Amino acid sequence: MKTILIVGLGNPGKEYQKTRHNAGFMFVDYFFEKYRDEFGFSPWSENQKLQSLISTGKSGGKKIYLLKPQTFMNLSGSAVSAAKKYFKIALNDLIVVHDEIDLPLGTYRFSQSASSAGHKGAQNTIDVLGTKNFTRLRIGVDNRRNKKIATEKYVLGNLSRSEIHDLQKILENSAKELITKF
């Protein structure tokens, strides 16, 4: 049976829930809710060994794991690597989802074998895996920010209601496209 691992990068904790940096968590939460019945996703459970929240489902002859590392963004690689090894995931069946400051809010982009472009969670994942040869879904979070605001402060800022509404469209569209890649 083919196994797919979809990892949403973000920061655990209520204070980070609605921040731009948690777009990866928002994606896997959306995917879980949208396809819960269709794919039979299990309730989220904490796996201490993998330092993550995990849900499991099936689509046809494929097993799907959703993962939310609880390691904080900049140390995501250890959880991604542990899950990849534990579930015996091939690199071409690994999808890492994260926020992208270099893309405008309302856009997303799939990339394969791309550099981190300065995203510390993506870079840590690349470093720990020892390769960049996996798929990334980059969710745009830049809403014409004032360039005087430090990037770290901007991505850890809460999204406004209108930004959350825009982000919902991205999550919907990118989830539909991701399913075509299975």
Task: Show the helix and strand layout.
Layout: E1 2-8, H1 23-39, E2 45-47, E3 52-59, E4 62-69, H2 76-86, E5 94-104, E6 108-112, H3 120-129, E7 135-142, H4 151-155, H5 161-180
Parallel strand pairs: 1-4, 1-5, 5-7
Antiparallel strand pairs: 2-3, 3-4, 6-7
Helix pairs in contact: 1-5, 2-3
Verbal overview:
By secondary structure, the chain is of the alpha/beta class. The protein has five helices and seven strands, in the order E-H-E-E-E-H-E-E-H-E-H-H. The protein has one domain (2-180): Rossmann fold. Helix 1 packs across helix 5 and helix 2 crosses helix 3. The chain is globular. It starts with a strand and ends with a helix.
In brief, what are we looking at here?
It contains 5 helices and 7 strands; from the N terminus they run E-H-E-E-E-H-E-E-H-E-H-H. It is of the alpha/beta class and 182 residues long.
Overview features:
182 residues, alpha/beta, Rossmann fold, 7-stranded mixed beta sheet
Structural class: alpha/beta
CATH class: Alpha Beta
Order of helices and strands: EHEEEHEEHEHH
Our count of domains comes out at: 1
Number of helices: 5
Are there runs of 5+ residues with pLDDT below 50, and where? none
- Number-wise, the strands total 7
